[in-house]
Give the backbone structure.
Amino acid sequence: MSNGATALIQTLVNAGITTCFTNPGTSEMHFVAALDSSSEMRAVLTLFEGVATGAADGYARMADKPAATLLHLGCGMGNGLANLHNARKGKVQILNIVGDHATYHTQYDSQLQSDIETVARNVSPWVRTSGSTEALCTDAAEAIAACMGPPGQVATLILPADVSWGEGGVPAPAPTLVSPSAAADATVAAIASALQSGGKSAILLGGRALRAPALMAMARIAAKTGAKLFAETFPTRLERGAGLPPVERLAYLAELASVQMNGLKHLILVDVKAPVAFFAYPGKKSYLVPDGCELLELASIRQDVLGSLDKLCRAVGAEQATPALQALKRPGLPRGKFTADKVCKAIGQMMPENAIIVDEAITSGLMLSMYTAGAPRHDVLTITGGAIGQGLPGAVGAAIACPKRKVIALEGDGSSMYTIQALWTMAREKLDVVTIIFNNRSYAVLNIELQRVGAGNVGDKAKAQLDLRTPPLDFVRLGEGMGVSSRRATTTAEFVTALEHALRTPGPHLIEAIVPPTLAGLKLRVLPHILQSLANLPQPIAQTLKRKIAP
């Protein structure tokens, strides 16, 4: 008869969960020992819990199935919360196994004792502490069913040490999942009527609606009805590139998103919520749906997206419509002064087919979407919850899920330092990841927000909180110190050479791109005034300004 840990691992494998990102401690040692009992379970060591949770997120997005994490007590769970927040916002399937003290030991309130359930609930809709070895695998099956959804979500199973080492564990079979239902006929009819009414309409897509099959259906509907297609600002996974329908992402800056949606009479939601500003700003709207625009939901996060789109296709007569598809069109190789835009242009020119871009470039990636629009087909993963430090761990998970695809991780210098330990896991696992660090020696996005939020006069002490110049971060030494081949590029030519080498050579590579902030000096000072003026400008001028700031 198995102990609890061995039975639990077999339960995970029975459900198709075969990868576990670990950062264990004493309470998890029986689970660690039980890993040897299963040839099917891959265990990937990380040096920080935020790397484990972010890697599980990236893995699940690309594998379309959950990964597990193994975390140590409430403190370990707490260290992984930022990337679990991103996973929660992105409706990503993650199963956390969090070790706890033995059930009889908790009464003594030892040094590492904490309320793990309270820590977990902020990011995990399903939380349970398993009370006995006999109940453990039943609890695990329920956790797996919860995290697989729909919608996908984070589930947290807390594993007391004596439940783990106790004898009598019986593996559970894979849970039976509930099939989601498509939109009701009345809902489809109302949306079809709105799309055919002649008013300016748009369809906002998120989650599963940004995958190729749904995009093709949406493109046929758009071709038939004239509706504009938008993607949510930070998609969980966006399939794009040559041969797929182009979709315009809503801008991060609320003023620019309002320009995109100006004049809409109908906005249809598919696996996404209504757009809101990322933050509140004095005197500015938080809710971004235009006044007078009718909001309609075709498919919620719990419904069948493809089934709903199929019904809408038939309702508007779009089954045979010809979808607009993105042509293959790469930019030329960049030349001249080295900037973040030149990095984005080089990626668009050189990236291989079926690449995975993990985008945490922040302000340095403003032109990435434009330069990669006509590149070969690829996937883009973004920071769905806005908690920085997801890019490098997400690249780890994506590379493990898709070992035959090149992963390109685009990172800001400040955000990379939240989870820089992910480089070590890339080296240890020999992952095919090209990490590009935009080193502008600044929290550049916060310089923009400081201007926008109306915080008043900004002095040297305030500016120093956003400055990373002293001492300068040396990412080549950091990368090499963790076993990753690393280069520095200070010119456009150096970057092109470094990227060419990294793309043709398997294994992890890091390129430190020394670039100025994308928005600085006069551009940064005038940006708030431009944004404030957009609502009063003629729409063609506003649209032109929007494209120049964030294509």
Remarks:
- The chain has 23 helices and 20 strands.
- The first strand starts at residue 2 and ends at 3.
